[in-house]
Amino acid sequence: MTEQHTPNRRDFVKGAATGAIGGALLGMGAYSYSPSAYSRMPKVERKQADFGACRSVKVTSISETSWFNNAHLVGDIHAAGGLLVDQYSINWPPFGNGKGVANGSYEDGIDSIRKMIPHDLEAAWATQTKLSLHPENPGGYSCLIEVEDLDGSKHKYLLDAGWSYDWMDQSFKREAIDQMLAANEIEALILSHEHFDHFWGFPVVMKYNNKIPTYAHDGFYKEGMQYIKDSGYEGDLKVIEKELTQIRPGMMAIKFNVPIITRVYGEVSLAFNVKDKGLVLISGCNHQGILQMTSTAYEKLKYDNDRFYGIYGGLHISPFEDWDPKYDDLVISLGKWDFEKVGCNHCTGHLTAKKFVEAGYPVIKGTARFRTSSPDYLGNGDTITF
């Protein structure tokens, strides 16, 4: 399998019309990953990269609640023009301009708060609540990943920065992330993709450490790259261009080139080789799909016992709790890999978690704290160790 070509912005716009249906369905997880899909895939030689091993991986869900009202979010997207609309134009905070749905812009939004970020986020968010659609709805996705090396040393990484300045600052303080960032205890921030609920809270990280090494997919648009600068970032931005990028022994970033709803391109997921256990996969949203993520890891990576051990994060099957029978194929496909631990949340959907349990998968449940609506999966403040 050769690495896919990342289209430039012109390529993407040109392809939007012909690929609208396919791209939208893929982004929403509606593509059918039935078991028979595996047999249809071309047989390829496994070229497994040896990326070392770690002793354990612990994940803390800082916030998996990206928004609090599905109807408001979906309604805004539809009113703005549908799934392929530019997310920066919807008029959500922090890029609202007071001109209503579909009339927002990065430039107008950032101009209203440029002088406030990242040092005065309270004032910045208050300004945006007067200019934006449903400013009470944003939450955000972010988790803390702690990797224990074979020698017992531990290393911390932040996956994603959430959305709402207010909610994410509260969530960071709840889990002492603010202190860890200020003390340089977190070694890097990894941005899984450019979506509003994973990236727009970037200034909250900058508030506490604006020099933290940061990884980002090379499919970020000019607005996203400019936002990193406008947020006061002064660190080493590592743009991920290769399919596989080793972060440390036993920790690998996998880049997927895939069109995603609201004009976002590409996602980065993480893989860990836990000694004597096997492979652990961690995703922000997994827009690339379970089939592509697991198959790529199986083909490209070397891991202990040649076994999939655990999975965590958003699996993007029924993010809006709108179950469709076709999603059952996705549930079935997960069973092929025989994970020992399944820690799902965020865009996996509560209905999906229930389906996993019904299928007999080892789902780790949560505590339903801090505005997580159900204990069906790992929620805000919950942890899992692999």
Describe the secondary structure blueprint for this structure.
Layout: H1 9-27, H2 35-40, E1 49-50, E2 56-63, H3 70-80, H4 106-113, H5 121-129, E3 142-148, E4 154-159, H6 165-174, H7 177-182, E5 186-191, H8 196-199, H9 202-208, E6 214-217, H10 222-230, E7 237-240, E8 244-248, E9 251-260, E10 264-274, E11 278-283, H11 290-300, E12 301-302, E13 308-313, H12 327-335, E14 341-344, H13 350-358, E15 383-385
Parallel strand pairs: 1-12, 4-5, 5-6, 6-7, 11-13, 13-14
Antiparallel strand pairs: 2-3, 2-15, 3-4, 8-9, 9-10, 10-11
Summarize the model shown.
The protein is an alpha/beta fold and 386 residues long. It contains 13 helices and 15 strands. The protein has helices at 9-27, 35-40, 70-80, 106-113, 121-129, 165-174, 177-182, 196-199, 202-208, 222-230, 290-300, 327-335, 350-358; strands at residues 49-50, 56-63, 142-148, 154-159, 186-191, 214-217, 237-240, 244-248, 251-260, 264-274, 278-283, 301-302, 308-313, 341-344, 383-385.
